Structures are given as C-alpha cells and as structure tokens.
Amino acid sequence: PLGFQEVSMVIEENHQFSLVDDEKWAETLPGKRGFVRVGPKGRPFGVALYHQLHCVNALRFSYTVARDGLVTDPKILKSKLAHDNHCFQFLRQSILCKADDSLITSRSNNQSLSQSGFGATHRCRNWAQLRQFVLENEAAWE
Predict the structure, then answer these.
(1) Rounded CA gap, 13 and 10, in Å?
(2) CB contact set of 103 (below 8 Å; sequence gap of 6+)
(3) Could you give the CA distance from residue 125 to residue 120 in angstroms, rounded to a whole number?
(4) Considering the domain boundaries, does residue 9 fall inside one?
(5) Residue 115 falls in which region: left (phi positive, over 0), alpha (psi -120 to 50) or beta
(6) Residue 121 counted as domain residue
(7) Per its record, what are the GO molecular function terms (predicted)?
(8) Which residues sit opposite 107 in a β-bridge?
C-alpha cells in the first residue's frame, strides 16, 4: 500500500458517466490500464483501484449489451459471464475490504427503509495522487 493523502468526497449522481458512454468510462483507466512496475527488474503489478474500475466498466458494458440484445452467440455470452462472475467476486471482496463506515441518510415509507447513498461525505484516499503515481511509474519504465 502506498501512502496517499485523504480527501473528502460527497457521493452524488454523475450524469457524465452514462451507461452508453464507452469513451468516458475508458478514461477512468490511466495509460496502460493501471499497471505499475516495481523493483530493479520492473516486476509488473496491477493497482487494485484500476482493476475495480475495469470490472465496473465490464459489468456496465455487459448490462447494456444484454439490455439491448447485442450479443446472441452462446460462446461469447459464456465467456462474458465467466468474466462478469470474476468481476462480481472481486468487487464484492474489495468493498468488504474497505468497509466504508460513512453514514448515509435513509428514508422510511412505514414499510421499509431505503437509501440512495447520494449526498453523504466519505473520507477517501486521494485517487488523483494515485493516478499521478501510476502515470509517472509507467513513464519511468518506457
């Protein structure tokens, strides 16, 4: 783990990241998709944040493809589902690992509680610093 500053982030709905904007989602990954090289021999490692974003993007893509019926080939669907299952497992465990204890507001309709998750302030690692580190690391190994 690298030591980065903490920042506050209010989680809000972000319409810039629509389900159909492939370009915008691709921009979440830095140059070489979030890989760094470490040590004198430059051993490659993936940075977990970028694997998580890759998985969110893959699930987004699968959802839109399924919703719109764009893929019907069973072999492609089977391969996609295997990758999606990997992503669900990786994201589930990553979320548990971070165990974000920020409190988010709830609404009650006398039968159940619900929450949007929007509007709450969270304490986060500075993802901009991490991105800068990854980009500098990539440049050093080119």
Answers:
(1) 10
(2) 120
(3) 16
(4) no
(5) beta
(6) no
(7) oxidoreductase activity
(8) 114
Residue 122 lies in a domain: no
Whether residue 55 lies inside any domain: the answer is yes
Nearest one of 124, 119, 122 to 107, comparing CA atoms: 119
Token duo for residue 118:
């929007």
Q: What is the pLDDT of residues 43-101, one digit of tens each?
A: 999 999 999 999 999 999 999 998 998 888 889 888 889 999 999 999 999 999 999 99
H/E element, 101: none
Number of domains in the chain: 1
Residue ranges making up the domain that contains 80: 17-99+127-140
- Secondary structure (3-state) at 40: coil
For residue 31, the model assigns a pLDDT of 86
